[in-house]
Specification:
Rossmann fold, 7 helices, 10 strands, 26% strand, binds adenosine-5'-triphosphate
Length: 226
């Protein structure tokens, strides 16, 4: 499945400060979108608003569903069914293996067949080059942990993938490998990807790049110029 995104009059306010204002934005289903901008500009705030984890005014419509019109429980259910989140603190279960980390959340959040979820989690870990290891992820390197977090986000086969700096803790070769694998996995299945990143190697592979400055979105069509 694939979902389009339509934002209108999206505003996130904290106290007297407006953190984000997006009058309108439409992205077709299956788009691969990058978001960049200076530190503190509102990039993570945008991802949180798009996932419904943060209260925003206005409309965030994924396909036919406006997150703003849903109760908190239905928002959570929508997120579990349709979104994979790769946020900066990976929040892995330290004492569990990569395989358990990749499949557990999917087992709780989807009604899919258990064997199918486990097989998909194992496949994503393999495709992302995570060692087939039963040791706990506590002893994994930063890059391996990042790939486990990506595999976990993909284990539910979500229509939407939201990623915050997915290559941040990787060296160049590992980042390039992750970019190849992530872009292939997302394009193969027609997912919509929105990735906050400063990594030009990643931005270069996406369909469109948006820039946020002081909570305002502007479009970039050319990558390689920042
Ligand atoms: N709950 C909050 N209350 C007040 N200010 C907040 C709140 N959450 C975020 N901010 C502020 O909003 C601004 C945007 O934060 P955000 O995390 O979205 O920035 P960012 O562009 O992702 O930055 P970075 O690249 O450094 O991660 C920052 O100045 C931050 O301090």
């Amino acid at each position: 499945m694939s979902l389009s995104l339509n934002l209108s009059d999206l505003t996130v306010v904290a106290g007297a400060r407006t953190l984000l204002r997006v009058p309108s934005l439409s992205l077709p289903a299956g788009s691969l979108i990058g978001v960049r901008g200076p530190s503190g500009a509102g990039k993570s705030t945008l991802l949180y608003a798009l996932s419904g984890l943060l209260a925003a005014k206005g409309s965030v419509r994924w396909g036919q569903t406006d997150l703003a019109q849903l109760s908190a429980e239905r928002r959570t259910a929508f997120r579990a069914a349709h979104m994979g989140l790769i946020f900066q603190d990976y929040l892995l279960f330290e004492e569990l293996s990569p395989r358990a980390n990749a499949s557990l959340a999917a087992l709780f959040s989807t009604s899919g067949d258990r064997a199918q979820v486990n097989a998909r989690a194992a496949d994503r870990l393999d495709r992302l080059g995570v060692p087939r290891d039963s040791r706990s992820v506590a002893s994994f390197s930063g890059g391996e942990r990042q790939r486990v977090a990506v595999a976990r986000a993909l284990a539910t086969d979500p229509a939407i993938l939201l990623a915050d700096e997915p290559t941040a803790s990787l060296d160049r070769p590992a980042a390039d490998q992750l970019i190849d694998d992530l872009v292939a996995l997302v394009r193969d299945s027609g997912k919509t990807l929105i990735a906050v990143s400063h990594d030009l190697h990643l931005l270069d592979r996406l369909d469109r790049v948006l820039t946020i400055r002081d909570g305002q979105l502007t479009d970039d069509t050319r990558v390689g110029t920042a």
